[in-house]
């Protein structure tokens, strides 16, 4: 065993008597343990929230979305789109017609978005998981129904079980300007709500209807706002997207889920790194406490240092003693913290120990998602800070070494 490591180990695990220095070292180790565990737990919980948010987002968004670059709508009845529709890898090929509209229920009004969808939209089996009240029904008994976002329901107080009180939806009539009767400037259609869904603020002001209802309301008999594609599992979506881009031309945009909402992904990424930086500062404070305990150890072991030097130990050996002791304190605390954080996360995953409260409808307990990369990140972070802190302490150990030898 390396001489420096052996002596550092003896200093750290001295079994003869407990010094104040040992207690301070133990406190420093405990600080690293708590900091490492907290970093693992917070990152894993944040991963869990990210997974839940993206899962909800994915439940309502297609894997690939095609939109026109110019204008709001385009004609989907072309040779290319008809050929694309025949791809046997497709689960759903949904035509979407979307526009802002005024929604009225009773004496209350709300400016929302009407989203008419073709029948393939309902092939998404995850839609039911977004429903808070009622069901995700768009057609029943020869009648059209709407599914509304929770923001609309909250503002208008819509009762999805009251079939006698439909919503009224107003859309500007195309080609009519300054009519003597203002009502003639709008197309008005009535429709009952069958359910309420909740995803996130971006989607919760949408009214989903059959595309036939939206076409009648918006006086748009053939054009669509977008075409949404969802493929079978195992399909190489990057290859599919690139192929569509190559063949469709530059008049259209073809976006995957991440490109459809870049702000959401950026926000989640920024928040993750912000949390990491904050907890890293806490770890820095905990690890740099080791400098204080090692400085006191250097003072306490001045005679030992002088004796070792007289016996032939060079400065590198003496520095190595205190460097390795600092690394031992940090790494033992780090490993113990990682194990503690892992144990807590596994318990939270299986038993949901920490609840979020009854007000949360989507999830009951704080979600946890363990990632191997987080454990590596914590270990590297603690290791890097520990090397700096231990290096500073090691340099202090040989300061004034000649004076110590003269005093001895």
Q: How would you describe this structure to a colleague?
A:
- The chain is of the alpha+beta class and 408 residues long.
- It folds into two domains: 3-57 and 264-407, no CATH class; 64-260, no CATH class.
- Helix content is 51%, strand content 19%.
- It is built from twelve helices and eleven strands.
- The chain has helices spanning 3-12, 20-60, 79-85, 150-156, 211-218, 237-248, 257-260, 262-300, 302-310, 315-351, 372-397, 401-407, and strands at 64-68, 90-105, 108-117, 131-134, 139-140, 143-149, 167-172, 186-197, 206-210, 226-231, 252-256.
- Strands 2-3-9-6-8-7 form a six-stranded mixed β-barrel.
- Strand 5 and strand 6 (143-149) form a beta hairpin.
- Helix 8 packs across helix 10 (315-351), helix 9 (302-310) packs across helix 12 (401-407) and helix 10 packs antiparallel against helix 11.
- It is elongated.
- The two termini are 28 Å apart.
């Amino acid at each position: 065993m390396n001489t420096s490591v052996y002596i550092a180990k003896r200093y750290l695990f001295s079994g003869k008597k407990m010094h104040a220095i040992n207690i301070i070292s133990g406190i420093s180790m405990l600080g690293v343990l708590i900091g490492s565990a907290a970093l693992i737990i917070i990152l894993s919980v944040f991963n869990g929230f990210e997974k839940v948010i993206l899962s909800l987002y994915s439940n309502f968004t297609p894997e690939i979305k095609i939109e026109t670059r110019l204008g709001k709508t385009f004609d989907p009845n072309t040779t290319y789109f008809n050929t694309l529709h025949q791809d046997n890898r497709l689960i759903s090929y949904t035509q979407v017609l979307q526009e802002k509209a005024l929604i009225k229920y009773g004496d209350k009004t709300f400016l929302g978005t009407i989203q008419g969808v073709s029948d393939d939209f309902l092939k998404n089996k995850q839609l039911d998981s977004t429903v808070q009240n009622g069901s995700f029904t768009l057609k029943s008994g020869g009648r059209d129904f709407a599914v509304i976002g929770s923001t609309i329901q909250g503002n208008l107080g819509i009762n999805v079980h009251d079939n006698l009180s439909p919503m009224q939806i107003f859309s500007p009539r195309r080609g009519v300007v300054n009519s003597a009767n203002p009502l003639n400037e709008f197309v008005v259609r009535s429709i009952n709500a069958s359910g309420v869904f909740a995803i996130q603020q971006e989607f919760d002001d949408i009214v989903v209807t059959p595309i036939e209802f939206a076409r009648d309301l918006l006086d748009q008999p053939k054009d669509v706002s977008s075409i949404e594609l969802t493929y079978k599992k195992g399909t190489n979506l990057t290859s599919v997207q690139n192929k569509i881009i190559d063949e469709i031309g530059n008049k259209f945009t073809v976006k995957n889920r991440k490109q459809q909402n870049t702000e959401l992904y950026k926000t989640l990424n920024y928040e993750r790194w912000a949390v990491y930086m904050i907890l890293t500062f806490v770890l820095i404070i905990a690890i740099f406490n080791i400098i204080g305990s090692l400085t006191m150890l250097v003072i306490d072991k001045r005679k030992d240092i002088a004796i070792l030097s007289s016996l032939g130990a060079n400065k590198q050996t003496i520095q190595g003693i205190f460097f390795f002791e600092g690394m031992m304190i940090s790494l033992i605390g780090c490993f113990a913290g990682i194990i503690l954080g892992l144990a807590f996360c596994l318990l939270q995953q299986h038993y949901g120990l920490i609840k979020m409260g009854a007000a949360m409808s989507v999830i009951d307990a704080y979600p946890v998602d363990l990632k191997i990369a987080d454990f590596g990140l914590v270990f590297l972070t603690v290791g890097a800070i520990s090397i700096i802190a231990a290096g500073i302490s090691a340099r202090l150990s040989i300061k004034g070494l000649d004076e110590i030898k003269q005093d001895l």
